[in-house]
Amino acid sequence: MDHFLYRDGALYAEDVPVAEIAAQVGTPFYLYSTATLVRHFRLFDEALAGMDHLICYAMKAASNQAILKTLAAEGAGMDVVSGGEYRRARAAGVPGERIVFSGVGKTAEEIRLALDGGVRQFNVESEPEMQVLSAVASKMGKTAPITIRVNPDVDAKTHAKIATGKSENKFGIPISRAREVYAMAAALPGIEVIGIDVHIGSQLTELEPFELAYTKVAELTEVLRADGHDIRRLDLGGGLGIPYTRSNEAPPLPLDYGALIKRNVGHLGCEIEIEPGRLIVGNAGILVSEVIYVKSGEGRDFLILDGAMNDLIRPAMYEAYHDIVPVIEPAPGTEQAPFDIVGPVCESGDTFARQRLMPPLIAGDLVAFRSAGAYGAVMASEYNSRPLVPEVLVHGDQFAVIRPRPTFDEMINRDTIPEWL
After folding, report:
1. Reported pTM
2. What is the pLDDT at residue 242?
3. What is the DSSP letter of 227?
4. Among 204, 199, 209, which Cα is nearest to 175's?
5. How far apart are CA 137 and CA 146, in angstroms?
6. CA-CA distances (angstroms) from residue 232 to 65, 188, 270, 307, 421?
7. Which partner for 30 in 7, 161, 379, 391 could form a disulfide, CB atoms 3.0-4.6 Å apart?
8. For residue 76, how many other CB atoms are within 10 A of its CB?
9. Residue-level pLDDT at 161
10. For residues 77 and 280, what is the distance between their CA atoms, to the nearest angstrom?
11. CATH classification at residue 344
């Protein structure tokens, strides 16, 4: 569930009317609910109750410092995949011992940054990375705790662009080579093997792929321990999906996911880490946009919004579906008609929905894209010289702009003109 509900015919974010925020901030803008963020984090925490665990929020889903501080106050760790994300996490007050550094392309500079500032572990993805990590840590006189990400060759049954656990994906080492790579790690100076990492993809809507992957991880744990490795931590990744529609086919609940973890690896006595991102923040955010024009075309009608693919790229990149609802609730029985819902960017790909049934709308009306909190603002750009979309956080009856919209001057003045021009 989320905390974006109609009251007396108007859409509210917790206790604040969305239209009131739009009047002050302007559109388009992202809007997050603190209550939803906290509720979703606590669902995972409760699901792993009774196990030694840490929930590391996958901050690539939404990395505003206000969101990070909200979750860190609940006890969350952070899963980062770049030096920039590491800096964001630290700036938000997250201690190094609660930051897991993932990603296939960590540079020596990023490794030094995390070793110097403190890090819970590096999730190592390849032998060359492991060798660089060993060299950097040794030169700094430090010991880097590592897990090694294994690729279990499990089909996550999700979109091809967000599947990460099959043999053809770029992530991790083949699980068939795990013993060889762990032996190599044990012989290198400057690193300490503490566990195993696995992550098979994003937006998983069934539990079977997790079951297959975690069964393999449990078996590997026993094998590696027999080889003499002190496997005491299992990083099981994230990936649990969210409902993008209001249908009855909802993805599994965190409670069911937690039960699966306990069933498959609970007997190993390992500390468990999970890295949810989308499920924590996805339904905790909406994108609010205004209708610019209602246009009649040849055989179809268009709703042209002031939000565009540069603000929310998921439909263009992943063919993603988002519920799009009017901010003013239609009266019961209001007749709907099909519209193509598009933005103003000069590309046919700037299309959010085709032939979507919508109630009658006119220029100036507001609409909200539900489930837009994950991979929305973080993937936004300034394509077509459109300023980055602002972000707003609601807390009860209060709201605050947590990333302002830059002015056109601020955007344009970042350019530097060479002296010969």
Report:
1. 0.93
2. 86
3. T
4. 199
5. 12
6. 31, 19, 5, 47, 60
7. 391
8. 24
9. 43
10. 13
11. 2.40.37.10
Catalytic residues: 346
Question: How high is the pLDDT of residue 245?
Answer: 72
Query: Residues in the chain with pLDDT < 70?
Result: 1, 155-171, 246-249
Pull the structure tokens for residue 211: 């079951």
pLDDT at 249: 60
Closest C-alpha to 60, from 259, 207, 199, 256: 199
Host domain of residue 54:
34-280
Give the Cα separation of 245 and 334 in Å (integer): 20
Angle between helices 254-265 and 34-47 (to 10 degrees): 30
Show which of 239, 255, 280 is a domain's final residue: 280
Q: Which two tokens stand for residue 76?
A: 């969350």
CA 185, 189, 192, 198: dihedral to nearest 10 degrees? -30
- Closest Cα to residue 276, out of 74, 114, 126? 74
Q: Cβ–Cβ contacts within 10 Å for residue 281, how many? A: 34
Q: Which of 232, 247, 280 is the last residue of a domain?
A: 280
CA–CA gap between residue 171 and residue 85 (Å, rounded) = 19
In this structure, what token pair is assigned to residue 123? 């999730």
